[in-house]
UniProtKB/TrEMBL annotation, chain A:
InterPro entries (UniProt xref): Imelysin-like, Imelysin_sf
Superkingdom, taxonomy of origin: Bacteria
Annotated transmembrane regions: none
Record key words, sorted: Signal
Cleavable signal peptide: 1-20
Cellular location(s): Cell envelope
Keyword Signal: yes
Domain Imelysin-like: 35-390
UniProt-listed Pfam families: Peptidase_M75
Gene3D superfamilies referenced in this protein's UniProt entry, alphabetically: M75 peptidase, HXXE motif
Protein name: Imelysin family protein
UniProtKB/TrEMBL annotation, chain B:
Designated name of the protein: Imelysin family protein
Signal sequence residues: 1-18
Pfam families: Peptidase_M75
Record's keyword terms, sorted: Signal
Top-level taxonomy: Bacteria, Pseudomonadati, Pseudomonadota, Alphaproteobacteria, Rhodobacterales
InterPro entries: Imelysin-like, Imelysin-like_IPPA, Imelysin_sf
Gene3D superfamilies according to UniProt: M75 peptidase, HXXE motif
Superkingdom of source: Bacteria
Location within or outside the cell: Cell envelope
CDD domains registered for this protein in UniProt: Imelysin-like_IPPA
Main location: other
Residues annotated as domain Imelysin-like: 28-304
Length: 419, 327
């Protein structure tokens, strides 16, 4: 039964090589989209860095607004690359540096008294490195007089082995630009005064020079990290090479990324849990109230890699033979279903984005008793869960054997098992 | 060896529909019935006496029953976030004590409404919120409000359990049985029913290895005993044993083929878990204790490998996506 399926599938794969897409071409398209997406993210991060530099040079309300706008723009290409994270180990291992979430922001800077101090899970939830140039961390005395890339990346990031200690990446920068959103599930985002970055007497909330240094260093690190990933997907880059090294595993990686982001990460961790907890901190971009946009571009990214088509911020298009072509050749029904379901999830996420643009921010949708908001979010959750089932069907249609099963010591060599 | 496995798979692939029926009749339906029954008992106990001494045994029985089905993450339990409302864990950021403190601090009267508890954050509902109320000193003296909260939360849990049980009996069991029928829009082929059950099996093993055992283990330098599941009530080890027994039961029903490697791997994992002698898994704080927990974790992972290599091929399926994919 299984042998028969395998034979049929490989016949189809062979037949399609001359008729439709070849797996190798599909992988090329996928890698091209990744390369373009990370390059666009890098370009947008450079614009953010320029805006931050101009603001810090001469702090003003307009300067802070410009930096915030540049941060929002930077999220557009980046979120569309999240689909590359699952399935490509090189991306997953790196991702925490740029997009770790959720965070205990008191690690970085001052917070409202309602935030509380250290928690059961995190002794350093309220460390406040901006205000404390010297402190003890996991029994080690740390000199943070100078805020350096090494301090953020090697000392503070995941300090004490706690993932919520996020010192680098988009969300650390977001916190510095917006501050805490103290409006709960009512209207309004974080409202950090621009004078938090003023020099001399005009400085509010203390330590403006250290806060500015932190923002500058974190933005620089973001550029460094995005540059690394953009080159990893360029020709001869490690991510592209790994992907192209094994066609079956490569195609599997695309589908794994689509399914894991759709289901466990976006529908589950980021959306459904927030509704169930009624907790405004359970929104992905909780300081800026930009969550509606981030979720939308996340969903769009899933469709991009299936359709083999990515529209860059400048309007140009990267496209080529797609996974959709490959699935259509093996099982046209599954392909048609999945394409329709991907359109439906993008539409559901767009409905959330539209509602937010019209005044119902994502955190308001999470409020206890906001039935309309809950319906919007749960509609997108359902659409994402539905498409996950068809992604599994695509795995079956291509006979990829599902998740890769590593050789098992316990079965191959019982004596090797850790006793 | 590999050829033999494929050959066996060919022999056993056909009657798998009977296995789906067996899993439903002998594993899923009795499991949810037991959970519903014990949760109703807990609710009734709370009506009579909301003190910890009276409630702890009934709460433990309910938790025991939940472990018989906690790995079934699809169907009615997935709707409306019921599984998370029953068991919100792990609680990465301390949301449960925070939500309970706020409720009690505000003396929030929402719980007086019979449907009120269902409106609460899931962090304040279900087995784990009740554990805080029953075992954590912070909540011991919550007075009349604490008593009302206990009654509201146990009634809510009983309602959830009843809804799940009803939904399986009145419709979802049929949906799963009729996988591939023309009017079945959930399971488009008979294979998809087998895959859902197989995914529940592998995901359940991963959850016990990575979360129930892995979270308290932390790292060698920094073990985390207070990240163990229900350490306050000292039933972390028991949870591991009962979940493994339930998963072993599912594995047995799921295939008619001989599964010697799976059987041996489960027997070893369960035996090691039973002999651990560390109810709250607090032993992870010491290197030797952590090592003993790690040995159990390895044995559970070995059981997962056996299942993937032995049961998966016999069903002609591989594991699908699960909610733990992602972080």
């Amino acid at each position: 039964m299984r042998l028969l399926t395998a034979t049929t599938a490989s016949c189809i794969l062979t037949a399609t090589m001359t008729l439709a897409a070849e797996p190798r071409e599909v992988l090329d398209t996928y890698a091209d989209i990744a390369e373009a997406g990370y390059a666009d993210s890098l370009t947008a991060a450079h614009r953010l860095q320029d805006a931050v530099a101009a603001f810090l040079q001469e702090p003003s309300p307009e300067g802070l607004d410009a930096a915030r706008a540049a941060w929002r723009d930077a999220r557009v290409p980046y979120m569309q690359t999240e689909v590359f994270r699952f399935g490509n180990a090189i991306v997953d291992d790196w991702e925490g540096r740029v997009n770790a979430w959720p965070l205990d922001e008191g690690l970085i800077d001052y917070v409202d008294p309602s935030y509380g101090g250290a928690t059961d899970a995190n002794d350093y939830a309220a460390l406040n490195v901006v205000a404390n140039p010297v402190f003890t961390l996991s029994g080690r005395k740390i000199d943070a007089t100078e805020i350096t890339p090494a301090l953020l990346r090697d000392v503070l990031q995941e300090a004490d082995g706690v993932e919520a200690n996020v010192a680098t990446g988009y969300h650390a920068i977001e916190f510095l630009l917006w501050g805490q959103d103290l409006n709960g599930t009512a209207a309004g985002a974080g409202d950090r005064p621009w004078t938090d970055f003023s020099t001399g007497e005009a400085c509010t909330n203390g330590n403006c020079d250290r806060r500015a240094a932190y923002l500058r260093v974190a933005t620089g690190l973001l550029i460094e990290d995005l540059g690394y990933m953009a080159s990893a997907w360029a020709s001869d880059g490690a991510a592209r090479e790994t992907l192209l090294g094994d066609e079956t595993k490569g195609i599997s990686a695309i589908l794994t990324g689509m399914g894991s982001l759709s289901y466990g990460e976006l529908a589950g961790e980021r959306m459904k849990l927030g509704v169930l907890l009624n907790d405004p901190e359970e929104e992905h971009d909780c300081f800026s109230d930009n969550t509606h946009a981030s979720h939308y571009y996340d969903g769009l990214g899933i469709r991009n890699v299936y359709a083999g088509r990515y529209t860059r911020p400048d309007g140009t298009v990267v496209s080529g033979p797609s996974l959709s072509d490959l699935v259509a050749a093996a099982d046209p029904e599954t392909d048609a279903r999945l394409r329709a379901e991907l359109d439906a999830s993008v539409a559901a996420l767009e409905a959330i984005r539209n509602a937010a643009d019209q005044g119902m921010a994502y955190d308001m949708m999470l409020g206890r008793g906001n039935a309309e908001g809950e319906a919007l979010i749960m509609g997108a959750v359902e659409a994402l869960v539905t498409q996950t089932r068809s992604i599994e069907r695509a795995v079956a249609a291509l006979d990829l054997g599902g998740i890769a099963v590593e050789g098992s010591d316990s079965l191959d060599d019982p004596n090797a098992v850790f006793q | 060896m590999k050829r033999l496995a494929i050959f066996l798979a060919m022999l056993t692939a056909a009657p798998a529909a009977a296995q789906v029926d067996a899993v439903i009749d002998d594993h899923i339906l009795p499991g949810y019935a037991a959970f519903s029954e014990t949760a109703a008992g807990l609710r009734d106990t709370a009506v009579r006496d909301c003190g910890s001494d009276a409630l702890r045994p009934a709460w433990n029985e309910t938790f025991d029953a939940w472990l018989g089905v906690s790995h079934l993450t699809f169907g009615p339990v997935e709707q409306d976030g019921r599984s998370v409302a029953v068991a919100f864990w792990p609680d990465e950021r301390g949301a449960t004590p925070r939500a309970l403190t706020a409720l009690i601090g505000d003396q929030d009267r929402i719980i007086d409404d019979p449907q009120g508890a269902a409106e609460l954050s899931v962090a304040a509902r279900g087995l784990h919120a009740l554990e805080y109320l029953l075992y954590d000193d912070r909540f011991a003296g919550s007075g009349a409000y604490g008593c009302a909260l206990m009654r509201a939360l146990t009634a809510d849990l009983a309602a959830l359990a009843e809804q799940i049980d009803d939904a399986w009996r009145s419709g979802y069991a049929r949906t799963l049985r009729t996988a591939g029928a023309p009017d079945n829009t959930v399971y488009l082929g008979e294979r998809e029913a087998r895959q859902a059950l197989f995914t529940a099996l592998t995901t359940g093993l991963e959850f016990t290895a990575d979360q129930r055992l892995g979270r308290p283990m932390g790292t060698f330098e920094r073990p985390r005993p207070t990240r163990a599941e229900s350490w306050r009530s000292g039933r972390s080890q028991r949870n591991v044993i009962l979940s493994l027994q339930a998963l072993s039961g599912l594995a047995r029903e799921l295939t008619d083929a001989a599964t010697p490697q799976t059987d041996a791997a489960f027997a070893r994992a369960i035996g090691l878990a039973e002999r651990l002698g560390d109810p709250a898994l607090a032993g992870v704080a010491e290197p030797s204790g952590r090592l003993r927990v790690e040995v159990v974790q390895q044995a559970v992972r070995a059981a997962r490998d056996a299942v993937l290599e032995e049961i998966g091929p016999s069903l002609g399926v591989s594991a699908g996506f699960n909610s733990a994919d992602g972080d």
